[in-house]
Amino acid sequence: MKSIGILGVGQAGGNIAEIATTLGFQTALINTNQRDGVVNTRVEKKYFVPGYNGAGQDRSIGLRAFQENYREIIDFIKESFKNIKLLLVAFSTDGGTGSGMSPLIIELLLDQLPGINIGAIAILPERNVLAGNRINASECIEEISKIKAISSVFLVDNDQMRKINPQSSKHQIYLSSNQKVMEAINNVLRITQKSSFYGNFDESDLMNILNTRGVTIISSATITDAKTTSDASREIHQSWVHSIFCPVESTGVIRAGLIYEGPENLSKLIHVPSIFESIGEPLQLFEGTYFSETDPTITTILAGFSFPTRRLQSLEDSLEKNKDRLQNLVNKELSQRYESRVSWASNLKANKPEKQPGSVASKVSKNQK
Ligand SMILES: Nc1nc2c(ncn2[C@@H]2O[C@H](COP(=O)(O)OP(=O)(O)OP(=O)(O)O)[C@@H](O)[C@H]2O)c(=O)[nH]1
Ligand SMILES: [Mg+2]
């Protein structure tokens, strides 16, 4: 039984829970819209907030739906997960349901599920989304970043897939983002099940890293072509830039994992100081070394980063730039009227003479010859 559970909230969250189910995670989903949730057929445990039909990208509706039903929802979550150590709440930051209710769900779960750590898989929208989505994402991230006892926050960046596949449909971007994030988490859990003579990376190591408060990324680099330690370090740095998560922007990793899988002779290319040169050495490093005849792969888990200011500001920039135009749109919504130029013409409609009252019988008899 896997020790990490996935709770999907809203449509994107439900889609991530769907993939997590296929990988063998315990999962559940919550939505305000039954029609969104029923398509996630593999997720067995589902809660649809009664009396709602989606939140229509309105975070306050998502929040209200949770506030009105929080006892039932918390009970549903408690019953859905057994013997897990970490629960990751998955949601998009720019819709209404997941973005609106997830920060409060996480806060309450931290109180209500003692002994289980709570983290987040929060999806950031692509760069071309419109103002309403940007506002939602900024508000949501701000709320998440203020939760005191939260564990790892995985910031899944839909823009990362868009950069690789500029021509893809939204649906393809979503599907591959969902797959990649769950595969990354599944991969590090898989490693904790292996054993090695030369250094095990076990489940407590992983949990130690993932329970770090702040932003976490996981990435893997294949170093088949590396000849020197600096080649290998460069491959690792590239994997941080191209992962499914918001790229690392600053120094300040707190706990990290470094796992080598592959032929014995290439493991000597791992050089810790040069790997961490650009982001600073962490407080704690957990290493694992597993020799096999597979392609040489280095998986890194970096936890405890600050929220990526540059990426988040790129979401906010276009709001700032369009501040007046957006303000005008809202004012117009309230004030707009249409004034007809031909109101004088209403007088042209002559009144018909008043109807003469009279019985049907008298009219019929008048017309009889
Ligand atoms: N990675 C990923 N992103 C998704 C997926 N579905 C939607 N998104 C993102 O989420 C945003 C829409 O949010 P939803 O999750 O549909 O919203 P919701 O939480 O269901 O809230 P409402 O629909 O407003 O009730 C989109 O703009 C995308 O950024 C998905 O399956 N994967
Ligand atoms: Mg929805």
Quick structural summary:
The protein is an alpha/beta fold and 369 residues long. Helices cover 43% and strands 19% of the residues. Magnesium ion (MG) binds at residues 10-11, 33, 36, 54, 95, 97.
Structure description:
With 369 residues, this protein is an alpha/beta fold. Helices cover 43% and strands 19% of the residues. Strands 3-2-1-4-5-6-7-10-8-9 form a 10-stranded mixed sheet, with helices on both faces. The protein binds guanosine-5'-triphosphate and magnesium ion.
Q: Characteristics of this structure?
A:
single chain; 369 residues; 13 helices; 19% strand; binds guanosine-5'-triphosphate; binds magnesium ion
Give a topology summary.
Layout: E1 4-9, H1 10-22, E2 26-31, H2 34-38, E3 46-48, H3 59-80, E4 86-92, H4 97-112, E5 117-124, H5 131-145, E6 152-157, H6 158-164, H7 170-192, H8 203-210, E7 214-222, H9 229-241, E8 255-262, H10 272-276, E9 284-291, E10 297-305, H11 309-321, H12 323-335, H13 360-366
Parallel strand pairs: 1-2, 1-4, 2-3, 4-5, 5-6, 6-7, 8-9
Antiparallel strand pairs: 7-10, 8-10
Bound molecules: guanosine-5'-triphosphate and magnesium ion.
